[in-house]
Amino acid sequence: MASEQICEILNIMSKDYDHGVYPGRNSEGLNPEWPCDPFHVLIATILSQRTRDDNTRKASDALFHRYDSVDEIAEADPDEIAELVRPAGFPKQKGEAIVECCRILRDEYGGKVPEETEELVKLPMVGRKTAACVRSYAMCIPSVCVDTHVHRISNLMGLVDTKTPEQTEFALMDITPRERWSDINRYFVRHGQVTCQPNHPHCERCHVTQFCNYYANNRC
User: Fold this and answer.
1) Separation between Cα atoms, residue 23 and residue 99, nearest integer Å
2) What is the pTM of this model?
3) Which of the following CATH numbers is that of domain 38-138: 2.30.40.10, 1.10.1740.10, 3.40.140.10, 1.10.340.30?
4) CATH code for 2-22+143-218?
5) Are 70 and 106 in contact (CB under 8 A)?
6) pLDDT tens for each residue of 120-138
7) Cα 82 from Cα 162, distance rounded (Å)
């Protein structure tokens, strides 16, 4: 039943949020000016950590307008990169990580972003969520990308009962057909931004309340 439920939830959400979401896409669903390839998505996803999507877009645009390849960033001054990505927050930490990441890609991977999760998570500031995002959005490899929205909403609805994002990732993989793995992040993030907001879920305009434990336990 859980597999059927999550597929129906994703089908409904796909109608509500037809453009989905990925790091660097703005709130109106317009494509960024930079391409959706592994390099750009990797860097944008690193920038997206602990910040809003609009800030990710600003920082990514500033960076890619100045430096637009692995080799260029690998040779760049980390302090200059930090200033370019300042809108995303934590500029020094992210600037240094991005430069080091590109140096590793250049020196150890021939300038290419690796496909395997085990290799991706060796890069600075790349965890399972970032790796899954790159694999899903840039490489078209089915992956369950669990950010705060996915972790919160899937537990709120009762689809999983987990304590950590990594536990949520594997639990969702168990109940979701592989061909729908990438849809989870695409639509749950938009649902969290627009409807099931962290501090004020708008159940009155939610179209998946029939599947939601939170709604069943809190409706009047």
Assistant:
1) 19
2) 0.89
3) 1.10.340.30
4) 1.10.1670.10
5) yes
6) 999 999 999 999 999 999 9
7) 35
